[in-house]
From TrEMBL, chain A:
Residues 146-441 form the NADH:quinone oxidoreductase/Mrp antiporter transmembrane domain. GO terms for cellular component: membrane. This is Unannotated protein. It holds the Pfam family Proton_antipo_M. It is found in: Membrane. It comes from freshwater metagenome. It is a multi-pass membrane protein.
UniProtKB/TrEMBL annotation, chain B:
This is Unannotated protein. The lineage of its organism: unclassified sequences, metagenomes, ecological metagenomes. The keyword DNA damage does not apply. Residues 139-423 form the NADH:quinone oxidoreductase/Mrp antiporter transmembrane domain. It is found in: Membrane. Keywords: Membrane, Transmembrane, Transmembrane helix.
Length: 505, 629
């Protein structure tokens, strides 16, 4: 038996390899660096790794290759754009993660136990969240560039496993946090099973696990359609679970609420980019020729997701749950971009993912700042009058909400406008009508929060806005500037995306 | 069209000045006014440089453009932010930056005691930048940005002393009335885009041939509405008098020389639309004729020197609008009158400012008198402006105003005779009220209070006045010598067929001078022979009373717009509460109800979530089966 060594193009893979290397170094730092230096070392290592990886993405931005890793990954324009988006969103998320006050001092200790109190009192703060974040990001980077189902699945697990852990790291309300982590893990495992099951069917259909092989069978139309349809449906369930589309969304409000807020922001923004990136590639290339079978169903799911997310968000009293439902609604809007199945749809989706991701991190950054003596205050009723006490924070939160609502002069408007017009062009009129309708419903609760902050008198209950640290402030400023600039002058980014938005097959 | 890379500096220089002064705040109190003046002057130098380049090119190649960036690009709808400099805009560029710089210099001294002088200069620079954008934009949309920009600057400057409630109200009034006009401009842009698919000047010009007359008339009327708002023309004229609340240099720059003439620019720039829409063009003439009489009549009754000058501005712009409405023959004369008016009216406003400066900010002419002896330079420069506005040869107004009168007479038929008589009569009334201003202010016996110590203004103030006075003396001759301006502008306008000449130029000049002489004579008899009362007499005829109240324009607005408006608003509020809010609340309740019901699905149990996923999966597979069967 001969063994052929795989031929790898290390340059093209370097963005992911750098992240993995940084994560492994992080594990060593956790073990060997003194506790006084640990947090700052980890933070600089993580940010440095991310920036280096981003620089590497920039270096390869003109490369197009199907053979970077023996046909397992594809590097092309959308791949570069999605990777860059994930990295930028990750960097501003890491700035939020840097505030250790959100994280339990010792995750291994039982909630309320002696060890937990001890490590809190002695300031023995573990910082394993940094390497976990880097591992998750490397999975996210691999997810949209995978070009066979095995790699896709490995990437899915690579990004999911660290996230399950990170959801359970909250310092306060630790039981709720751990419950969220467990729920996320169980349901994630459940959906992974569907995903694997779907893979098996697709292999049965085409005798191949590569995108190219499956695509060939779909185009040829020679295989057994039942295998294809069931395989496609189950694979889709795995992906829809990750993006939180109805009816596979149930985990998201609980997890969003339970997880430490910086992790929620990171998860909501970066996971969406990765999952939709993979989804766009699969539907735009592999299944494009079977559009007749999946388009009506995905349209139906998109419509239900948008309406459900917007309607239920209205009834929320907790800001993190409200943002969770809003993110479900946004998953529906993004599905419209998948359904469009044209170049405009791809461009719009990539723009939307980036704009939404940045605004989401910004919004959660604001949530981290509103606190009382026992931690974050997420009850919306206690956000009353925030605009009078901390106008800048409230104004930026209002900016993010207006972007979510898709009000002109924010990035959200350009995103919604372009994604809906792409879907309309492709004939998905029902989706567009439902989208506009649910946008109107959604505007109701976004604007209600703004009214609450600016036009309602404050209650005296010790809620206060913490003075943002330098890094949190950086996140806030970057997000609000990006949100506004993309709303006022989106042309350069749109042109850039348009230039790069062609999947190779 | 040739492209250029330096047009942007015209706007960027004053814009940068404004930004620096506003951002640097109090730190720039010491040098801010100097920087602003220097930047305005350098913009003027850039303008002169561009003129020299333009003169060096052959006629067809004179217009140049500069694309700044792609502004809006949504599908097939593409708008670039581009600038265009042609023979028409260069006239405006030099007027704006030239007169603007003089007024900057004047303000250094005029505003020297104001603690907020820096802010004043920041706004002045902002105004210059916005006005330049207005005249340099290459499409209606770019023009619109500048149009709103000057509106903003005007609002900020009228209300500059907003600690006085009356002044704040005046700025609000100007702002609101301008919005009415601005609606016209936005409607015009929308109609143009809907019918022609473009909003650039060149695109619209090309599209005129295959656009229906109805659409063109609509655009024309909406542009006219815009012009009446910005240029204080009937029926949106009421704000200009109140705008005099702003510091006097502002009145000179914005409310006499430049911004209020933007309406004339808009109509002249849109000549291709009005030439193809005779109804709209006729309306332009009517508006111009009404306003020129309106302003002149108000001018006869005002005791406030600035308000008298404001009424005169209104009337003179009426002449320009009328000229622009006379079609291809009139455009160049309208612009010529605009330029000469820019000199003499700005000069007179600065003179009024100088008088106020020496008289403890008194504006009531009945409390002046005999100032000639105390302010010789102001008297001389104001006097030159006075002769220019009257149209006495060889002063500037003689050339420009007589041209308009002559064109009006020669526009043919009964229309020509009516317009000719209106413009002639207007010239006579102008002579009357301007002579009144001269007599009340500079001659006769002194009627001032004991606290007043009239004195000549410092050189920083009289120097700009002197330069403008030279302009009042020479600009008319220079612009009309050998038809200089007419030939310069002619490539931009359609060639026109000559009308039969009703009256020869010599006859028109003779008639006009006769009217002027009559006006002066009446004023002398009325005010120079008799003692002028220091307090305005109250036992006056009904006509004087009406004229003093600006021909009842505010009452008219109140009765026709405001009160019905208030009733309408009240009804709408009721409807809104009962119907719309009711519906919204209903939808909100339904949404809230269904939201709460749907929330019930969220039990918090992993098993029910997993069941939901399973049900979803089964449903999905079932649905695929149904869809594909």
């Amino acid at each position: 038996m001969t063994f052929t060594a795989p031929v790898l193009n290390y340059t093209l893979l370097s963005p992911i390899l750098i992240l993995l290397g940084g994560a492994l170094l992080g594990v060593l730092v956790e073990a060997f660096v003194s506790k006084a230096m640990r947090a700052v070392t980890q933070l600089s290592l993580t940010v440095g790794t991310l920036v280096l990886s981003l620089a590497q993405v920039w270096r390869i931005h003109n490369e197009v290759s199907m053979s970077a890793a023996m046909g397992s990954v594809i590097i092309d324009g959308p791949a570069v754009l999605l990777q860059a988006s994930i990295l930028i969103i990750s960097i501003i998320s890491v700035f939020l993660i840097a505030d250790t006050d959100h994280f339990t001092a010792l995750a291994a200790a039982l909630p309320g136990s002696e060890e937990e109190r001890h490590s809190l009192e002695t300031g023995n703060q573990v910082t394993e969240v940094y390497p976990l974040t880097l591992f998750a990001i490397s999975g996210m980077m691999l997810f949209p560039i995978a070009s066979d189902l095995i790699t896709l699945f490995v990437a899915l697990e690579m990004l999911s496993l660290p996230l399950y852990l990170m959801a359970g790291l909250s310092r306060r309300r630790r039981l709720a946090s751990q419950e969220a982590a467990l729920k996320y893990f169980l349901l994630g495992a459940f959906s992974s099973a569907f995903f694997l099951f779907g893979m098996a069917y697709l292999y049965g259909y085409s005798a191949s696990v590569t995108y190219a092989g499956i695509r060939e069978s779909v185009v040829g139309g020679s295989g057994n359609d039942v295998l294809l349809l069931v395989g496609m449906a189950f694979l889709t369930i795995g992906l829809l679970f990750k993006v939180g589309a109805v009816p596979f969304h149930a985990w998201s409000p609980d997890v969003y609420q339970g997880a430490p807020t910086p992790i929620t922001g990171f998860m909501a923004a970066a996971t969406k980019v990765a999952a939709f990136g993979a989804m766009l590639r699969i539907y735009y290339t592999v299944f494009a020729n079977a559009q007749w079978s999946w388009s009506p169903l995905l349209s139906f799911i998109a419509i239900v997701t948008m309406l459900f997310g917007s309607l239920v968000a209205i009834a929320q009293r907790d800001v993190k749950r409200m943002l969770a439902y809003s993110s479900i609604a946004h998953a529906g809007f993004l599905l419209a971009g998948v359904i469009a199945l044209n170049k405009a749809g791809l461009e719009a989706s990539i723009f939307y993912l980036f704009a939404y991701g940045v605004a989401t991190v910004g919004a959660f950054a604001v949530v981290t700042l509103v606190r009382d003596s026992s931690g974050e205050v997420t009850d919306l009723n206690r956000w009353k009058g925030l605009g009078k006490r901390s106008p800048w924070v409230a104004v930026s939160f209002a900016g993010f909400l207006l972007a979510f609502a898709g009000i002109p002069l924010t990035s959200g408007f350009i995103g919604k406008f372009s994604i809906f017009s792409a879907a309309y062009e492709s004939g998905a009129k029902g989706v567009v009508i439902a989208g506009v309708l649910s946008s109107a419903i959604a505007a109701f609760f976004y604007i209600r929060v703004i009214v609450l902050m600016f036009f309602t008198d404050a209650t005296q209950d010790g809620t206060s806005v913490q003075l943002p640290s330098f890094l949190t402030r950086a996140t806030l400023v970057i997000s609000i500037v990006v949100t506004l600039v993309l709303g006022v002058y989106p042309a350069p980014l749109l042109n850039l995306i348009s230039h790069f938005s062609t999947f190779i097959r | 069209m040739m492209t250029s890379t330096s047009l942007v500096y015209l706007i960027a220089l004053p814009l940068a000045g404004s930004a620096i002064l506003l951002l640097a705040g109090r730190r720039s109190d010491k040098w801010g006014h100097l920087l602003a003046t220097a930047l305005s002057a350098s913009s003027f130098v850039v303008g002169l440089y561009q003129l020299s380049l333009m003169l060096g090119r052959s006629t067809g190649e004179r217009p140049i453009t500069q694309k700044l960036f792609e502004w809006i690009s949504v599908g097939s709808f593409k708008i670039d932010a581009s600038l265009m400099l042609d023979q028409l805009s260069i006239c405006f560029v030099l007027l704006i930056t030239g007169v603007g710089t003089l007024i900057h210099i004047y303000s250094i001294s005029y505003m020297s005691h104001d603690p907020d002088r820096r802010r004043f200069f920041a706004f002045l620079n902002l105004f210059i930048a916005a006005m330049l954008l207005l005249v340099l934009g290459d499409s209606y949309l770019n023009l619109y940005v500048g149009w709103e920009g000057v509106g903003l600057a005007s609002y900020l400057l009228i209300g500059f002393w907003n600690q006085k409630p009356a002044y704040a109200t005046a700025s609000k009034k100007a702002f609101v009335m301008n919005r009415v006009g601005d609606m016209g401009l936005s409607f015009a842009i929308m109609i143009a885009f809907a019918t022609m698919g473009t909003v650039s000047f060149s695109g619209v010009k090309e599209a005129v041939d295959h656009t229906s007359t109805a659409a063109l008339t609509g655009i024309g009327i909406m542009l006219l509405v815009a012009a009446t708002g910005k240029s204080a023309q009937f029926p949106l004229q009421a704000w200009l008098g109140d705008a005099m609340a702003g510091p006097t240099p502002v009145s000179a720059l914005i409310h006499a020389a430049t911004m209020v003439t933007a309406g004339v620019y808009l109509i002249t720039r849109s000549n291709f639309i009005f030439d193809a829409a005779p109804t709209a063009q006729l309306l332009v003439v009517i508006v111009g004729a009404i306003t020129l009489m309106f302003g002149a009549l108000i001018g006869t009754a005002k005791d406030d020197i600035k308000k008298a000058l404001a009424a005169s501005t209104m009337s003179q712009i009426g002449y320009m609008i009328l000229g622009a409405g006379l079609g291809p023959v009139g455009y160049a004369f309208a612009i010529m009158h605009l330029l000469t008016h820019g000199f003499f009216k700005a000069g007179m406003f600065l003179g009024a400012g100088s008088v106020m400066h020496g008289m403890n900010d008194e504006v009531n002419m009945r409390k002046y008198g005999a100032l000639r002896k105390f302010m010789p330079i102001t008297f001389a420069t104001f006097g030159l402006g006075y002769l220019a506005i009257l149209g006495v040869p060889p002063f500037a107004g003689f050339y420009s105003k007589d041209m308009i009168i002559e064109t009006a007479f020669n526009s043919g038929g009964a229309k020509g005779i009516i317009l000719g008589c209106v413009t002639l009569l207007g010239a006579g009334i102008t002579a009357f009220y301007m002579t009144r201003v001269m007599i009340l202010t500079f001659t006769g016996k002194s009627r001032w209070d004991d606290e007043a110590h009239p004195h000549e203004s410092p050189w920083l103030m009289w120097l700009p006045m002197a330069i403008l006075a030279i302009g009042s003396l020479t600009s008319g001759y220079l612009l009309s010598h050998g038809d200089a301006l007419v030939n310069w502008l002619s490539p931009l306008f359609e060639n026109h067929a000559e009308h039969a000449e009703l009256l020869s130029p010599l006859v028109v000049s003779g008639l006009a001078l006769a009217m002027v002489a009559i006006g002066i004579a009446i004023a002398f008899v009325k005010y120079s022979r008799n003692e002028v009362a220091a307090v305005a007499p109250t036992d006056v005829s009904i006509f004087t009373t009406i004229a003093r109240q600006d021909l009842l324009q505010d009452r008219f607005n109140e009765a026709v717009f405001m009160q019905p408006g208030q009733v309408l608003t009240a009804v709408l509020v009721k409807t809104d509460e009962a119907v719309i809010d009711g519906a919204v609340r209903g939808v909100g309740r339904i949404a809230l109800g269904s939201g709460s019901a749907l929330r019930g699905v969220q039990t918090g149990f992993v098993r029910s979530y997993a069941a939901l996923i399973l049900i979803g999966a089964v449903a999905l597979v079932a649905a695929i089966w149904v869809v594909t069967q």
